[in-house]
Amino acid sequence: MFTGIIQTIGTVTTCNPFAPQPGQGDAASGTTVGITVPNTWVNNDPLVIGESIALNGVCTTVTTITECAETTTFTVDLSPETLAVTTLGRCVPGNPLNLERAMRANDRFGGHWVTGHVDATATLIDHQPDGSSHRLYFRLNQPEVAEFLLPKGSITINGISLTINHIQGAVFDVAIIPHTWAVTTIGQWQLDDSVNIECDHLVKIVSQLHQPYTHAAQPKPTQPKPNTNDPISEAFCPSTMGTSQIHTGRWFNLQ
What we know:
about 260 residues, mainly beta, Elongation Factor Tu (Ef-tu), domain 3, 2 domains, six-stranded antiparallel β-barrel, six-stranded antiparallel beta barrel, 5 helices
């Protein structure tokens, strides 16, 4: 679990495809990526093999660690699925990545609930100055994901917890304050760059739970009450009982 508060910027140093497995022909089954970070990030809390780290918003697992005098290099394995649905499949040595280590149970919750499971990618289509801040406009590459975006709701872009300003179809915009611009990779993004998108996890949960009820039943036509003063007939008429076929004393309405 993460919060979308970037802790450091790492640099991709290696990208090595897995060796093909028997029976797979020449098809590679994934890629091992090496990332180098400054030791100042891990001196007081060394990395351990098996821990989770978000790379540009993608939850990955540390597989090896190599420590040097001023830097630490670690590797993660990326599955074919990760390579296909995130921007990590286009990583090359020299690329900068936003990094965040998984939070502890007693950590301060600085951003919002981020799982590191990417829902879509988006393309940066415009960048406008906004006072001392910046306003960035993105178009979702999978428009169906727009149903999980809410104005003034949370979104994770390349691992950064941000707030959606406006949404128009598959296009949305966010504001970037100078601090976020300075301590993340945002300042290096160019128009037409692709980024990883994770929608607010709570919105996705509510949407999933609500799906069975999205097509609400049409209201039943109102049935006229019988023109009678007989309380028994009124108690059993459709407007009193609805469509129930259970005729018991608890349905009587003698008022």
